[in-house]
Amino acid sequence: MFEIKDDTWQRAEMVEKQLRRRGIRDPAVLAAMLAVPRHEFVPGEFRARAYDDVPLPIGGGQTISQPYIVAAMTLALRPQTSDRALEIGTGCGYQAAVLSLLAKEVFTIERQPELASTASERLPNLGYHNVHVHCGDGTLGLPEFAPFDTILVAAAAPAAPEPLLAQLAELGRMIIPVGDADSQELRLIEKHAGAFSTKTLEGCRFVPLVGHHSWQKPPER
Length: 221
Known about the structure:
The protein is an alpha/beta fold. It has helices spanning 8-19, 27-35, 67-77, 94-100, 113-125, 162-166, and strands at 56-59, 62-64, 84-88, 105-110, 131-135, 148-153, 168-179, 184-192, 195-204. The strands form 2 sheets. It has a 7-stranded mixed β-sheet with strand order 5-4-3-6-7-8-9. Strands 1-2 form a two-stranded antiparallel sheet.
């Protein structure tokens, strides 16, 4: 198994080459990306590639998003230190860890029990104590903890699930990949006076969001 003993220089290089040079310059987002040890969230056989600008398998047919996409989605949300954030698609917990350094609390949902269990152990062990991992259908959100100031959906849906829109706080922001199985675009949805506005950001490709208010099963590619 490949072991990384000191990844400080790799993180710094990732932030400089993959983020700053591509236009992400928000100091708080860059600091969070620099602080989180990405290799701790990647399976052992892929640790040598933990800081590459690519998504990597994490098991269960899921992936950890490439660093640029994690940073771009985080930047679009404009998280504040007083925010209560909801993440749909915990995966390995990396995006939740990044959000946890920028928001007050992070609630995250993973539908696969094995991934949820691993993330719920990994995150506090690495010092991310303001992240609360739940296992279930992410398209239903967590109404018992709503409303949320920010919602980040880390899987692609044909449209924004209605329960998530309902759980968005006034002046809240949601970032979600919308499209079909092969091609999606990041959309930023904001709530003002009870109404929603949508802005299209950039193209992307995510694993599908499976649940009651999205695809019932992964669509064929």
